[in-house]
Design a protein that fits this description.
- The chain is 32% helix and 24% strand.
- The protein is built from seven helices and nine strands.
- It has a five-stranded mixed β-barrel with strand order 5-8-7-6-9.
- Helix 3 packs across helix 6 and helix 4 crosses helix 7.
- The two termini are 28 Å apart.
- Bound molecules: hypoxanthine.
- Hypoxanthine is lined by residues 107-109, 183, 186-187, 203-205, 228-229, 231, 241.
Length: 263
């Protein structure tokens, strides 16, 4: 950890970001537009490399709307074979860098039948169906407590702010519960029905490990899903997911920028 922080501080001239954003599948463009300093994950000591199409694998630093931001252009997933500790290592790095607010974004399939592809959904809560937990193992009291509370993982005031920003921009916004599966296979129709019965509104393969660790570390979290498809209503490919994310990315970007300027 120490050599990671030292390397980043040297590369960024002690940039000291306040907000971190993890940009999910097809949503990495914000970091192309605002990129004062770009560091490939492969150059950063202890960072795992992303292997997924649509995920570039850069840590990008920029001043946006007067705020100092660090962005992950692409993330690591459990289905790639990464350990939970590798997936959530960047969150601990963010904590050490002094991040107070984390914006988590992802592409997700709609389980709620009122959602349409290219809708944006503010995450109000999550269900961890990954079959593991990123906090398993010895606890480091420097980051958080052994049995952390998870009663408000997604900050209520940030949810309200994101809703207000969406209304101001005339963006239709959904709210709902994000269900995390490991993937990489998409859901069967029976699995999607089960998720709906058990309270999920959208399903994806990421976000929950990062959210658990960031909440444990005491960060305020905002989560936004870009709905890319109806989960298992018809045949689905990763290309379709990227295509729908592309359709949503203009409103996604304007929402994120509006939120940043009001944090
Ligand atoms: N299921 C799981 N993950 C996803 C989906 C889906 O339908 N769409 C985008 N990511």
């Amino acid at each position: 950890m120490e050599n990671t922080i030292k390397y980043i501080n040297e590369k960024t001239n002690n940039f000291k970001p306040e907000i971190a954003i993890i940009l999910g599948s097809g949503l990495g463009e914000l970091a192309d537009e605002y990129s004062d300093i770009v560091i490939p994950y492969s150059d950063i000591p202890n960072f795992a490399k992303s292997s997924v199409k649509g995920h570039k694998g850069n840590l990008v630093f920029a001043e946006i709307k007067g705020k100092k931001i660090v962005m992950m252009q692409g993330r690591n997933h459990f289905y790639e074979g990464h350990k939970m500790s590798e997936i959530t290592f960047p969150i601990k790095v963010f904590k050490k860098l002094g991040i107070k607010t984390l914006i988590l974004t992802n592409a997700a399939g709609a389980v709620n039948t009122t959602f349409k592809p290219a809708d944006l959904m503010i995450i109000t809560d999550h269900i961890n169906n990954l079959g593991t937990n990123p906090l398993i193992g010895p606890n480091d009291d420097d980051f958080g407590t052994r049995f952390p509370d998870m009663s408000e993982v997604y900050d209520k005031s940030l949810i309200e702010l994101a809703e207000k920003c969406a209304n101001k921009l005339n963006i239709d916004i959904q709210k709902g519960i994000y269900w995390a599966n490991s993937g990489p296979s998409y859901e069967t129709p029976a699995e999607t029905n089960l998720i709906r019965i058990l309270g999920g509104d959208a399903v994806g393969m990421s976000t929950v490990p990062e959210a658990i660790v960031a909440n444990y570390c005491g960060m305020k979290i905002l989560g936004i899903s870009c709905i890319t498809n109806s989960a298992s209503s018809e045949k689905l490919s990763h290309e379709e997911v990227i295509e729908a994310a592309n359709k949503a990315k203009i409103k996604f970007k304007s929402l994120i920028l509006e939120v940043i300027s009001n944090i």
